[in-house]
# Entry
Amino acid sequence: MPKQFTLTLIILFSLTLTACGLLQPDDKVANYRVSYRSQLEPQGYYAQVALNDHTWQLQQISEQPLAVEKANQEVLFISPDYRIQPVYQSAEFTNATEFVCRDLKTGKLANYMPCNSQLVVLNTGFRLTKALLEKTVTLGLSNDENHSTTGELDLDKFAIMIQQSQLLQKIQDYQRQQSALQQQKNESCQRYLDHLASLSDRIKLQAQIQDNSGFYQNENLLRLIVPSQDCPETSDKNKWHYQVKLAPAYFTAFEFTIHPERYELPHQPDYLIQPVLTIHYKTFQRLYPSKSFADDNLAIGMKEINAHSGRIRFQIQFTNQSNHYLTIESISLYLNQAILTQTFTQTITLPPHSKTGVQELMFEQQSQADYQIAYHLIQRKTTLNQSNISLDIGLSVQYKLDNDYQTLYQKQTFIYGELVQ
# Structure
């Protein structure tokens, strides 16, 4: 009988301890709430706190994850709406505050988890009571270290930690500091970008020309490129730099090198850039023959021959010098040994003593060899010293005069340098 009485006292004592240890969250949470989530919010703050001489102190705040470095430390995550939780490396939570602890070995900083946290309470009273109620009572308890126990985040300890460390106030101070720093950074960045946008107007280009082509006549050869650039981390203008580079102007016919091509400019009101341009060649794409081809009936004025974008174009004008109607059916252009022929799908008919406007004929690739030869005879890189080569240009035209087919064929020799001037 005495043994039964003693057992009853033990059970009541255990239940009393446990009941006294229960937390009332509504009494502890005012401007914040404590709960655990396995997935943190994308934005928030990390805080490292430490318990020294029974007093919690805030050691650092960061927007990047922090680590527990000593046994007296805890790492917390604070969301934008002030939800607070420890950032355990591993945890098995059954709800927002309660967890299961399967490894009661503590002191391992490499594995920061609820089992060795200073902000939790382990419900060992519940476990003992349950064991006493469900099993036959013995004089000894099991020493199984792997036997799991439950626990929960201790809201009383959280309240004390938050009050002593002034966590919420310092988070707000940190937010204000970061906001002020971001505002300063934004203003500094805008000043940098404004200067960058006006950079091309602040730069004077004064190129030193070394012309090896012999054709340069003060043409504009350069364009300035100001690439997009990120704002510097510093607001010190003395440490700001701007990247610019030089490139050939659009549609320039000259081939040249630029030295230097790239510049790193400091922050200052105005700039003078003096690159050295060495011109090697000029590429010509147009020939301007100055002579006409004619017989008693037909005269052909040759205006321009050009090779561009893979096509050869030929500008000519026809004049009927006879007293009869004249119909042109096909024409061939001769450039040295290359021959390009075009047969008109719609013939050109001229009344007596009349002429056409300037006609532009386009030659597509015909005989591959002849077309390539002709194309590169028209479009070529050259210098003034190399431009004294000769070029034979000829025309043959098949035309009909009063139903009588006739042919005009003539060839003339030109100096290349005279054709491109």
Observations:
- The chain has three domains: 2-165, 199-284, 286-419.
